[in-house]
């Protein structure tokens, strides 16, 4: 995102904004309440919540039942109070709106989730997709894409789908 001049490289305003946003994200969500301590898992939780939100919006509109499924998934999955879950949802909304791809989320998740947590996330993605009783092709594409980026075996991907559909 640089514009090359004669002998000088200038960054565009968009590139500067993007870098500033990334720095803000890591400053806000990689640091715990006490200074000096970091919690990379918190950023991974925000990334997972952003993917759940993306699933809800794949069919254009987030139904209330989808929002409820997301809140339940992050409260129970990450053992958060309602207040902390709301904070995480705010983080996820902001990150989802600024995202340019899924890799920025899945790379954090790959670094901080174990195989079981990744499979649970895939199951929750299916749960959000089926929450409104309608699975669109874009939702199926997203869960398949995320499963591939998270290196979730195909058998686990299918098993999660079947568990949710039962």
Instruction: Spell out the CATH superfamily of the largest domain.
Output: TerB-like
Intertermini distance: 47 Å
Coarse shape: globular
User: Which percent bin holds the helix content?
Assistant: over 70%
Structural class: mainly alpha
How many alpha or pi helices? Answer: 8
Task: Please render the helix and strand layout as text.
Layout: E1 2-4, E2 9-11, H1 13-29, H2 40-57, H3 64-77, H4 82-98, H5 103-112, H6 115-130, H7 137-149, H8 154-165
Antiparallel strand pairs: 1-2
Helix pairs in contact: 2-3, 2-4, 2-5, 2-6, 2-7, 3-6, 6-7, 6-8
Describe what you observe in this structure:
The protein is mostly helical and 166 residues long. The protein has two domains: 1-38, no CATH class; 48-165, TerB-like. The chain contains eight helices and two strands, in the order E-E-H-H-H-H-H-H-H-H. It has helices at 13-29, 40-57, 64-77, 82-98, 103-112, 115-130, 137-149, 154-165, and strands at 2-4, 9-11. The protein has a two-stranded antiparallel sheet with strand order 1-2. Strand 1 (2-4) and strand 2 (9-11) form a beta hairpin. Mean pLDDT is 83; it is low at 1-10 and 29-38.
What key phrases describe this protein's structure?
166 residues, mainly alpha, TerB-like, two-stranded antiparallel ribbon, 8 helices, 2 strands, globular, disordered N terminus
Quick overview:
The protein is mainly alpha-helical. Helix content is 70%, strand content 4%.
């Amino acid at each position: 995102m640089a514009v090359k001049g004669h002998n000088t490289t200038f960054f565009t305003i968009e590139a500067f904004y993007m870098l500033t946003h990334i720095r803000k994200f890591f400053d806000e969500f990689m640091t715990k309440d006490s200074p000096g301590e970091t919690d990379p898992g918190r950023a991974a939780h925000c990334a997972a919540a952003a993917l759940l939100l993306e699933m809800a919006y794949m069919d254009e509109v987030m139904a209330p039942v989808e929002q409820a499924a997301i809140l339940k998934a992050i409260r129970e999955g990450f053992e958060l109070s309602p207040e902390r879950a709301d904070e995480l949802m705010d983080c996820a909304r902001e990150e989802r709106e600024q995202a340019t791809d899924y890799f920025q989320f899945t790379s954090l998740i790959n670094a901080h989730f174990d195989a079981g947590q990744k499979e649970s996330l895939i199951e929750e993605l299916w749960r959000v997709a089926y929450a409104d009783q309608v699975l669109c092709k874009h939702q199926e594409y997203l869960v398949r894409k995320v499963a591939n980026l998270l290196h979730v075996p195909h058998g686990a991907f299918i098993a999660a789908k079947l568990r949710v559909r039962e």
